Amino acid sequence: MASTQHVHGARILVASNRGPVSYALDDSGQLTAKRGGGGLVSGLSAIGPDADAVWVCAALNDGDREAVRRTGGALDPADTGGQRVRMLDIAPDVHADAYNGIANSVLWFVHHMLYQTPLEPVFGREFRRQWASYEAYNRAFAEALAQEAAEGAAVLIQDYHLTLAPGMLRALRPDLRIGHFSHTPWAPPDYFRLLPDDVAAQVLRGILGADRAAFLTQRWADAFTACCKALVGGLGGTRIGVHGLGADAEFLRRRAHQPDVDERMAILREQIGTAPDGSRRKAIVRVDRTELSKNIVRGLLAYEELLESHPEWRERVVHVAFAYPSRQDLAVYRDYTVEVQRVAAEINERYGTPGWAPVEMHVKDDFARSLAAYRLADVALVNPIRDGMNLVAKEVPVLSDQGCALVLSREAGAHEELGDDAVTVNPYDIEGTAAALHEALSMPGGERAERSKRLAAQATALPPARWFLDQLAALGV
To answer: β-pairing, 53-58 with 405-409?
Structure first.
């Protein structure tokens, strides 16, 4: 391909399903832009406005699609904080099939090992129809990246939504330096082979179209390598990398001491209350989306077991549980959210007293309230079935005012870095988790503070900007 053809293209490109901005359309036809956060936003801001970068993302709602219609997909930099963004108006039914049908209902389930295998998965005609949409969705990204990229540009493609895009882009633009980053765990070969053989191979070969495939932990990188060896004969020329995304300590500490957080802390303190002897009740904090992999129901059952097996904690502890609804357009997630609330209500009914609600459950997303809970936490409960990383495990020790004990699932990616100073649990073991909660609540203040300090240091070792820049450096930028 002649180099002049791409002389005005971007030197650095990022591709992800969700972009840095979303739009809402009101009845009068007015568009309102709302900027998002997260590691990629922090990362791109670290390279500065002169880095000649563009972010390619999908339109996710009617407001986004209207913005694409009005701008041709090249969004107004005033809406994006000065970032160049190309938004793709992929047909809504194609996006729904690719995003909900395949990415969230198949690939997510495989990598988090969530299937109830006597009944699911069922890979029949409907799956093949949705898989064709997933291919079309990935192709749209590959074509847009090929158009936007300068000769020899570096492209960072993000996550399980876009596993086929690296290979498709490589076919269109062999001159590019391509990286793919997986934010999820990676399934071991035996579980990955639940996918139809041709689809499993297609996913692996898609990612192997990248010069470099990167993961959050060595464990997930090793699982990917094992799948490639078992199914497609190895990695070819693709290099493997590990970048353990850390907490953005500077942003979190600044945000957590704003007046709205202080207000919510006062309300939470009042809800937690004091023990019958007048001492401050302890707080076990969890902050999660009601995502199946987060294991909220077993966490509640473990707390119930703590109250049963250690009655001395009754009226002396409150479980502050934030379970923010997620993916409510999928029935299995709606059912799970209902079950979380049912179990919490049952615990309150069984153990509660006039002056004490054992569980303080909140389901309405409120970032300031989450930060307030982090600051108040004596114990953080992070017990996922399986998690690529889990930033909550990293954020709570950074913000906890008094230092907190971390009860952490060995199946969270964060365990690779934080395990030495956490209280480790098997996420399926209710009695074991209850014992861990008791150990964490009983931990002497000095030990808790020391562990918390070490956890915070580990948690902030690779902040989002560094995480992003390291990936670019590994591609030779």
So the answer is: unpaired
